[in-house]
Each structure stands twice: as C-alpha cells, then as structure tokens.
C-alpha cells in the first residue's frame, strides 16, 4: 500500500515507471476489463482524482480508500499493482452492487464505471448526449458503435469517435469535463480493428450541439450543417 498521495505520471517519468516487465496492473480471474479501465483513468491523468479524495454525498469511504491507497498510489509510485489489491476492490463492489459475479466474471467496463461512479461514489454523470430531436441523456462513458468500414484499416480515436457520432446522429450537449471513450470490440473471437492509434488530442468542435462553426466554403460562421 502507498498511503501518501502521488501525482499522475507524465512524459519521461511515465516511461521510466511504467515500461518493462512486472509493470501495470496484474491480471487475475477475468479482471482485464477493470485493470484496463483503472489504468486508463488514473495512471497518467488527474482529471478524475476527485474520486479518490472528495467526500461525495453517497460516497463509500472504504471503497474510496482501497481505490486510492491500494491501486492508484502504488501504480503511480512503482508502476505496479498486485492482483490481490484489485480483488479487494472487486469484493467490495460485489458487496455493494448486489451482483455476485464481480469477483470472477468478465464484465463490461461501462457496468463497472456505472457502479463505482454512480452507486458507490455518487458522482454526477460526465457526459450529456442528444440524438436528433430526442431527449437529452446522461452517462459516464461513451462506447463506440459502428459498422465495419473497409477504408478504416488502422484508425485513430478521432476517426472512430466522429464516425460513431455520425452514424448514431449524436451530439454532445456541452463540453464534458472528462470524456471516457470505450473502443469497439466484439469479444474474444473477432476484433473489428487489430490496432487503434491513440489520438493525443481530440477535436470535438463538430460533435457539439449548437456550437458556432466555420463554413468550409466561405469561412464565415456556418448557418447550415451537412452530415
């Protein structure tokens, strides 16, 4: 355990601490969905550090301390988290979530995020989305859904998000404080893409609802949008 607080890893420090054997979060008993989610959320960014420290109205302090002291701080300090620490968290989630399979079954990352953010910590939804003229919907993460497209062999995240929003007629109602994106996947037998290039920056200009944008013809503020 690392009871002291450690900042997220950046640049050369991230490479030095996280690269090599026995690094990252140790997998055990179908924990890969949670290991990958926790690593993505906390190893190199502080945008969700409020989950570790802030006493939310519904906050379960025991789960919060396990997450902070047994997983996030050791990951940032030494670059390694043992499987037992993640199992400790999974046992608590099983107890709090009325679901007996969190300790042994593979889950969807969205199910894990909804449980820990909404039911256990009581965090407000991070995303507000709207499809066409339908009612606004709130969620904690966005999963990319799209049909197979032959022109995309090795896509980047920017391309996937834009095409997914377009195919679902979705818009972001407002700029999110944190944009958690789940990549497309189809289980163990079939993967839609063998590789996806991470976009180090994400341009959401065209994904925002009613946001002023430049006309691609004349350069003035656009009055019409063609999908």
TrEMBL record:
<keyword id="KW-0963">Cytoplasm</keyword>
<dbReference type="GO" id="GO:0005874">
    <property type="term" value="C:microtubule"/>
</dbReference>
<dbReference type="InterPro" id="IPR018200">
    <property type="entry name" value="USP_CS"/>
</dbReference>
<dbReference type="GO" id="GO:0004843">
    <property type="term" value="F:cysteine-type deubiquitinase activity"/>
</dbReference>
<dbReference type="InterPro" id="IPR038765">
    <property type="entry name" value="Papain-like_cys_pep_sf"/>
</dbReference>
<dbReference type="GO" id="GO:0005819">
    <property type="term" value="C:spindle"/>
</dbReference>
<keyword id="KW-0493">Microtubule</keyword>
<dbReference type="Pfam" id="PF00443">
    <property type="entry name" value="UCH"/>
</dbReference>
<protein>
    <submittedName>
        <fullName>Ubiquitin carboxyl-terminal hydrolase CYLD</fullName>
    </submittedName>
</protein>
<dbReference type="InterPro" id="IPR001394">
    <property type="entry name" value="Peptidase_C19_UCH"/>
</dbReference>
<keyword id="KW-0378">Hydrolase</keyword>
<feature type="domain" description="Peptidase C19 ubiquitin carboxyl-terminal hydrolase">
    <location>
        <begin position="24"/>
        <end position="204"/>
    </location>
</feature>
<dbReference type="GO" id="GO:0016579">
    <property type="term" value="P:protein deubiquitination"/>
</dbReference>
């Amino acid at each position: 355990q690392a009871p002291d607080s450690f900042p997220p890893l950046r640049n050369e420090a991230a490479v030095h601490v996280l690269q090599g054997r026995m690094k990252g979060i140790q997998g055990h008993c179908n924990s890969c969905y949670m290991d990958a989610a926790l690593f993505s959320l906390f190893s190199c960014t502080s945008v969700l550090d409020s989950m570790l420290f802030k006493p939310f109205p519904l906050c379960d302090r025991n789960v919060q301390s396990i997450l902070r002291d047994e997983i996030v701080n050791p990951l940032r300090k030494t670059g390694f988290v043992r499987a037992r620490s993640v199992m400790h968290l999974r046992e608590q989630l099983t107890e709090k979530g009325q679901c007996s399979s969190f300790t042994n079954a593979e889950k969807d990352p969205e199910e894990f995020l909804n449980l820990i953010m909404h039911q256990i910590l009581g965090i407000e939804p991070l995303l507000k989305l709207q499809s066409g003229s339908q009612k606004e919907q709130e969620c904690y993460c966005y999963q990319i859904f799209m049909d197979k497209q032959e022109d995309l062999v090795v896509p980047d995240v920017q391309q996937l998000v834009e095409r997914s929003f377009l195919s679902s007629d979705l818009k972001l109602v407002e700029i999110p404080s944190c944009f958690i994106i789940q990549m497309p996947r189809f289980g163990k037998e079939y993967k839609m893409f063998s590789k996806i290039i991470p976009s180090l920056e994400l341009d959401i200009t065209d994904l925002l609802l009613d946001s002023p944008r430049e006309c691609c013809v004349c350069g003035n503020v656009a009055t019409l949008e063609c999908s």
